[in-house]
Design brief:
Layout (H helix, E strand, L loop, with lengths): L8 H28 L8 H39 L48 E14 L3 E6 L2 E11 L6 E7 L6 E2 L10 E5 L12 E6 L3 E13 L4 E13 L4
Antiparallel strand pairs: 1-9, 2-3, 3-4, 4-6, 5-7, 7-8, 8-9
Length: 258
């Protein structure tokens, strides 16, 4: 059996049937003895000696039968292969493979070179000198769990928005939130208190329109760039403990001189 107790499912079924038969025989014998001789198990050592053969003998018969069956398995297998051999029963023969026929390779076909076709190419538009090139224009909404943060690349900066908590009664709740983009300063509107640098208490604003006094801003500009960022608290969901922050980011850069 190649190192395993059972080589197939049939042997498992055989073992189960043998064990089940032995158990049923033993239990049936005990029940029959207790019914026929009610005092057989109450007579001490003599009763045990009287009933012991009825238990041991069936177990010995089943065990001997199992050992004989296992010992005879190779003989049965050899007899089966001999009886059902291909010479005695041609219908059991395996189909012979057809002989392989060598096929000469087809001669290579020389293809004529197609006429050259001119394909128009298009070059990416290059901004003119001293012309502002839009590097990033983003409008996005992110949902952030209370006590967690969101971070991603926005334009040329890495923006992080952290929700510190939600205070106030329903309808007048304020989102405690902090912003960071790698060193820039953020500023709040008229109705957005700022207890610390870049930290704000933003009221909820979910109408879909801007409200300058309820937003947070970050902006900078020079002769070569214009950058503007604005964000608002677009929704508070205390059931799922998350806050929706809607923001817009615009970044323009002047083309470098050649």
């Amino acid at each position: 059996m190649s190192g395993r107790w059972f080589s197939n499912r049939g042997q498992i079924v055989q073992v189960f049937c043998a064990v089940f038969s032995m158990v049923v025989t033993t239990v049936g014998t005990i029940i029959a003895l207790s019914v026929q001789y009610p005092d057989i198990f109450k007579t001490g050592v003599n009763g045990i000696q009287l009933g012991l053969p009825f238990i041991i003998v069936p177990m010995a018969i089943v065990g001997v039968w199992w050992l004989v069956f296992q010992a005879m398995m190779p003989i049965f297998d050899a007899i089966t292969r001999h009886v059902f051999s291909e010479t005695r029963f041609p219908e059991f023969r395996s189909e012979a493979k057809p002989p392989e026929i060598a096929v000469a390779p087809a001669p290579a076909t020389v293809l004529s070179k197609p006429a050259s076709v001119s394909i128009p190419t298009f070059e990416a538009r290059k901004p003119k000198l001293d012309e502002f090139d839009p590097r990033d224009v983003t409008i996005r909404e992110v949902k952030i769990n209370i006590g967690s943060y969101w971070e991603d690349k926005v334009g040329s900066n890495t923006l992080r928005i952290t929700i510190l908590g939600v205070d106030g009664i329903p309808g007048e709740q304020l989102v405690s939130v902090s912003f960071s983009n790698g060193g820039g300063m953020f500023y709040g509107g008229e109705k957005v208190p700022s207890p610390r640098v870049n930290q704000f208490a933003m009221p909820e604003r979910n109408t879909g329109f801007q409200s300058e006094e309820m937003c947070v801003y970050n902006f900078s500009w020079s002769d070569t760039h214009i950058h503007f960022f604005v964000a608002r608290a677009n929704g508070i969901d205390l059931h799922n403990r998350e806050v929706a922050i809607n923001f817009a980011n615009v970044q323009l850069m002047k083309a470098p001189k050649e």
